[in-house]
Write a sequence for this structure.
């Protein structure tokens, strides 16, 4: 694991200052000089074993907000104390939008004290009672031994508590899948969602394709959606044990919706539309181990960075090449991620303990980028990716969600269908507010700039009926006999109270990453804003601002050229 991860996060370690199992994080002594920002205070008098000082390891201090709770022990609490603990659990679950992580054997300041076996067993029993009280389930993620002021073995336990909120059917997380053509995106999704390994000739991806030419060429040209569920105990729910999507939704407490995007360069506009329109929580960038960073990989990476979409990387097809080739690809990725344009901290995941740590740190810091190496044919390290997806918490907190829900309703129209005996159906994402069956909304703008009234007849999420839709959720809405010819992609359905207006001229700040010709007045561009995809013409360029940008770019280019000349031997 990269040493910069240890500098960025305070973690736990083995006695004597060595790294913990599975790459867990660096120790921070209470009175030491590690400089990691840990709590400072008086030194604890630890026993010396073998002449070495026993510096107590630390986690970051417990935060009041968030879904992570530290508990030293939960042994035989009084009734009053038990009720207080239950209330505390409800708060942590609300902060995590249905998920919370308990660290048992840890003080509030992050000191890893640990518990003896009997105390840990009693604490887990109490935690189980607390979870039953709120209607949640608990899953032990990992146990780690610590060495702190005791000759008896002591350990801390990390527990995942999961409960579907009362106002939701399941927890939802949207993951956009990026990567170069032929990197194995659709194959990986087919293996995850179907529960069967690929045969090495693309059998797993056949169920994901939407068009005949996709089956014939093996290349995705449109946007498709696939679902992977996890029940309250963290077990995978997919089509291997469920026949329909409705059964998966009913059996799952957490749902991962994969947005399969196109990898070929000529379908780049479709990929951009998928990233801007469907508002993914994070992105999965797939890189083939035998080709490395090639084709549109850099462009997709740049899109994720420009749109500020957190991403993690999966290196696929490790069964086709030698271990040295895989290592070379990983090193290539690490170099790119550490470049000034990215400023990421790569984190190679090689064990289940790494996967748990990666999921937590990925949610806490946008700089951490986990890297998985796996095979869709042999199944190597596939379980590590499932552990990561199961533990990965929502990347937006409950306060942001509440603020969005209090705004007026706005639904982005991404897809339009005609369903027999149902009528016109639109698919998209609710960007703000709450939408219910029977709501009266207005849709537009039409060609003449007007907004038309309509009524929401029914709502479905992941092919299952839903009565209420909340901000950030994707769904399909049935509009009854509303004329489909009046609708088009890029429209919005909003509350009449919003009094929507249109604009045809706007100002924008741009950064020109690359262009083959001169960017000048009168230049025609395609603008992507949310689900809006519209051609536009550059009417005016503010020369002063453009000059500053160009000068900065020229100076940066000159510095890079100078550094190259210095590094080049005569």
């Amino acid at each position: 694991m990269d040493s910069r991860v240890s500098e960025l996060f305070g973690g736990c370690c083995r006695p004597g200052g060595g790294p913990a199992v599975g790459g867990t994080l660096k120790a921070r002594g209470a009175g030491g000089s590690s400089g990691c920002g840990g709590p400072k205070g008086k030194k604890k008098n630890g026993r010396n074993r073998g002449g070495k000082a026993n510096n107590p390891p630390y986690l970051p201090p417990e935060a009041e907000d968030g879904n992570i709770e530290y508990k030293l022990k939960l042994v035989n609490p009084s009734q009053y104390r038990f009720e207080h603990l239950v209330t505390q659990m409800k708060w942590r679950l609300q902060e995590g939008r249905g998920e919370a992580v308990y660290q048992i054997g840890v003080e509030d300041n992050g000191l890893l004290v640990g518990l003896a076996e009997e105390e840990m067993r009693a604490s887990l029993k109490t935690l189980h009672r607390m979870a039953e009280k709120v209607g949640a389930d608990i899953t032990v993620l990992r146990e780690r031994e610590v060495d702190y002021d005791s000759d008896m073995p002591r350990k801390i336990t990390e527990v995942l508590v999961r409960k579907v909120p009362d106002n939701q059917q399941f927890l939802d997380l949207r993951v956009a899948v990026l990567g170069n053509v032929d990197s194995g995106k659709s194959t990986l999704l087919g293996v995850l969602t179907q529960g069967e390994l690929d045969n090495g000739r693309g059998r797993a991806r056949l169920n994901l394709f939407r068009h005949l030419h996709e089956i014939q060429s093996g290349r995705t040209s449109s946007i498709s959606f696939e679902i992977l569920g996890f029940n309250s105990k963290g077990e995978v729910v997919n089509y291997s044990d469920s026949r329909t999507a409705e059964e998966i939704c009913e059996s799952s407490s957490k749902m991962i919706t994969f947005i399969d995007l196109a990898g070929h360069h000529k379908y780049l506009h479709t990929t951009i539309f998928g990233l801007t329109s469907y508002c993914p929580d994070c992105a999965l960038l797939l890189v083939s181990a035998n080709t490395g960073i090639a084709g549109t990989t850099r462009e997709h990476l740049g899109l994720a960075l420009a749109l500020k979409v957190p991403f993690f990387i999966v290196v696929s097809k490790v069964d086709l090449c030698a271990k040295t080739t895989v290592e070379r690809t990983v090193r290539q990725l690490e170099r790119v991620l550490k470049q000034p344009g990215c400023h990421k901290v790569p984190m190679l995941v090689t064990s289940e303990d790494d996967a748990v740590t990666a999921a937590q740190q990925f949610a806490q810091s946008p700089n951490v980028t986990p890297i998985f190496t796996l095979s869709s044919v042999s199944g190597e390290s596939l379980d590590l990716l499932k552990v990561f997806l199961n533990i990965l918490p929502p990347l937006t907190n409950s306060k942001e969600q509440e603020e969005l829900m209090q705004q007026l309703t706005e639904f982005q129209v991404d897809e339009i269908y005609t369903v027999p005996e149902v009528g016109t159906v639109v698919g998209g994402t609710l960007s703000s507010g709450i939408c219910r069956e029977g709501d009266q909304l207005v849709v537009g703008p039409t060609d003449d700039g007007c907004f038309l009234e309509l009524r929401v007849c029914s709502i479905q999420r992941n092919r299952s009926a839903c009565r209420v839709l909340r901000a950030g959720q994707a769904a399909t809405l049935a509009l009854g006999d509303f004329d489909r010819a009046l609708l088009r992609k890029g429209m919005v359905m909003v509350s009449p109270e919003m009094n929507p207006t249109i604009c045809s001229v706007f100002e924008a700040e741009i950064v020109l990453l690359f262009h083959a010709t001169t960017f000048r007045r009168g230049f025609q561009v395609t603008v992507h804003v949310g689900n809006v995809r519209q051609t536009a013409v550059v009417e005016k360029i503010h020369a002063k601002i453009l000059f500053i940008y160009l000068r900065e770019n020229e100076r940066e280019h000159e510095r890079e050229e100078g550094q190259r000349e210095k590094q080049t031997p005569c």
Notes: The first helix runs from residue 3 to 8.
